[in-house]
Design goal:
The complex is a heterodimer of chains A (294) and B (298). With 294 residues, chain A is mainly alpha-helical. Helix content of chain A is 72%, strand content 0%. Chain B contains 13 helices and no strands. Classes of the chains: A mainly alpha (294), B mainly alpha (298).
């Protein structure tokens, strides 16, 4: 894109006036149609969440009929909280997500540094082997990975849930791209000051890659907070089960649990990410943007 | 690139490089490369049970697979699922990105609305959708009731269940893909559109002649991701349909889960996994050899 884009830009510059920019900003009717369409789709996209909030905050009797005067209640949340060991699930998920993230950041940083700034025989093949994981994610290899975890005697532990995801091709790739943009002069200066390999990595590369770390951390946390299939397979007790699996178990035992309580539990399980997302919306989207570009 | 530019000597650099790589390499090999190869190996054996060790049976599992109607159903469902999710979610993502990149009323809120499904756990939102689809008093049937239409058992009928699952998936994915298009749109210099406008191009022409071609690399990226996801996303099945009714919504990975972990036939599950791996390998090859060349215009 670059050459043609630059060429066109150079050609256009002399006559470029503050004409209406943006591709969808032509006539008034046009704009109205677009705004309507965009908002209709937006409401459609929000509908499930809005519905869940409505149901969770009203008595069970109102989950199927909408009445603006329906009384508000927190009873559903209390009932859901009491009906399943949610505190335990929250704790398990938090430990799981933190473990995976810590592993990914450390292993990814080391590997990315090796790929970005060292030349050694077999490097390109090794890099290609890493990228294979972008296509074949551990989610697809559940049968064989379960065998391995079983052989290691780790079934129903948090390490079992975390291990397959610790070395992340996406993380390594993302950090490698970032490290490559850091000027070598900085590294040379640090080396003259007497820094070793790890010292340079820690003092020069890691601080300069902070935005990438933040972006990657957000992507990774939201992904593993939501992960379901693998934790479902390797856990079978309350002590290790994460939120997603706990929620599925909870909602699966249909008898006697009504919709209002299930939606309350659903909101409980989604709330940490949802609140984090509402608070840090800008950074969240920005980080996805940044993570997606390279 | 041969010697390390900092004069440390090539050998030292090589040792350092490999040492840095080692921890990640070990885990990658253990949980990606080894299982991919071992899957093939184990697909040639029976599943060990109790006092009966695994026995070599060659291609028997693959022969069973050819004769297994559920496998064919799952494969066919998965192809329909891929076709039904990939293009609609990409088209919606592109429309969403164009909207929230333009000056539109409530742009921030709209971005929020589109992106929300991405941060919610699939298993959680599936619960909400399950309720929408409930016959008689679910949201869809209540809406149909307003027009005097009869109730439909959306998830319980073989005709509508897969479509219902596809709708949930598109809803979940489109907002995520939107982000990548938004990133790409923000990198397009506005002068390009202005230039086209000065030459009298209509909005539609500008989209197809200027914006759309410039979005091609992003489309490729999103297409690959959407395709991989089409063979990877099964979480909602656990809540919505459990593969039913009568396997109408069973997808390959879900069937692998059932065979491997409900029927505990890991040898046969390995053979099924090989099918899934070959599909994903095909996607990878398509990317590297065909699309790559088509997309990188000069």
């Amino acid at each position: 894109m670059s050459e043609s884009a630059q060429l066109t830009r150079a050609l256009v510059r002399p006559i470029a006036s503050p004409a209406p920019s943006g591709l969808l900003a032509d006539g008034r009717i046009d704009r109205m149609l677009n705004t309507t369409g965009a908002w209709a789709l937006g409401l459609l996209w929000l509908a499930p969440l809005l519905y869940a909030v409505w149901t969770a905050f009203h008595p069970g009797a109102y989950s199927t009929r909408f009445d603006l005067l329906a009384p508000l209640t927190l009873e559903n949340f209390r009932a859901a909280w009491a009906a399943a060991p949610f505190p335990r699930y929250f704790l398990n998920t938090s430990i799981l997500v933190a473990t995976i993230l810590a592993g990914q950041l450390v292993l990814g940083t080391l590997a990315a540094y090796a790929f970005a700034r060292f030349s050694f025989p077999g490097r390109d093949i090794a890099f290609a082997l890493v990228l294979i994981q972008l296509m074949i994610m551990p989610d697809v290899l559940v049968v064989e990975n379960y065998r391995s975890i079983h052989a290691l005697g780790l079934v129903d532990t948090i390490p079992a849930m975390a291990l397959p995801y610790m070395a992340s091709a996406f993380g390594i790739f993302l950090l490698r791209q970032t490290f490559k943009t850091i000027p070598r002069e900085l590294e040379e200066a640090a080396r003259i000051e007497g820094c070793g390999t790890l010292g340079i990595l820690w003092r020069v590369y890691v601080p300069l890659a902070k935005p990438t770390y933040l972006a990657y951390a957000l992507v990774s946390m939201s992904h593993h907070w939501n992960n379901f299939l693998w934790p479902l397979i390797v856990t079978n007790t309350v002590e290790t089960r994460p939120l997603t699996v706990g929620l599925a178990v909870f909602a699966g035992t249909d008898q006697g649990i009504d919709w209002a309580i299930i939606t309350a539990a659903t909101l409980l399980a989604s709330s940490p990410l949802l609140i984090a997302f509402l608070l840090f919306q800008r950074q969240f989207v920005q980080s996805f943007l940044r993570a997606g570009i390279r | 690139m041969t010697a390390h530019p900092l004069g440390n000597g090539g050998r030292l650099a090589a040792i350092h490089g490999w040492l840095l790589l080692l921890p990640a390499a070990v885990l990658l090999a253990a949980f990606t490369h080894y299982p991919a190869v071992a899957t093939f190996w184990h697909s040639l054996f029976t599943t060990p049970r109790g006092n009966r060790p695994a026995r070599f049976i060659g291609a028997d599992h693959y022969r069973d697979l050819l004769a297994d109607p559920i496998f064919w159903t799952a494969l066919q469902n998965n192809l329909v699922f891929a076709a039904g999710t990939i293009l609609p979610s990409i088209a919606l993502a592109m429309a969403m990105a164009l909207w929230v990149n333009a000056r539109i009323a409530g742009r921030g809120l709209l971005r929020l609305a589109y992106f929300t499904p991405t941060v919610l756990p699939m298993i959680a939102v599936a619960n909400i959708w399950l309720f929408f689809y409930t016959p008689d008093y679910g949201l869809f049937d209540q809406l149909r009731g307003l027009f005097g239409l009869p109730a439909v058992n959306w998830l319980g009928s073989g005709d509508t269940a897969l479509g219902a699952v596809i709708v949930v998936t598109v809803w979940k994915e489109a907002g995520f893909f939107m982000i990548f298009y938004l990133a790409a749109l923000q990198q397009i210099p506005p002068e390009l559109g202005e230039a086209a406008q000065l030459e009298g191009a209509s909005r539609w022409q500008r989209f197809w002649r200027v914006t759309f071609p410039l979005l091609m690399p992003t489309t490729l990226f999103v297409l690959i991701n959407a395709t991989i996801n089409a063979f990877r996303l099964v979480d909602h099945l656990f809540v919505l349909t459990r593969g039913g009714p009568d396997n109408a919504t069973s997808l390959l990975l879900y069937y692998i889960y059932e065979v491997g972990f409900k029927f505990w036939d890991q040898g046969y599950a390995a053979a099924l996994t090989m099918v899934l791996l070959s599909l994903l390998a095909t996607v990878a090859l398509l990317k590297f050899f065909w699309l790559e060349r088509k997309v990188h215009y000069q």
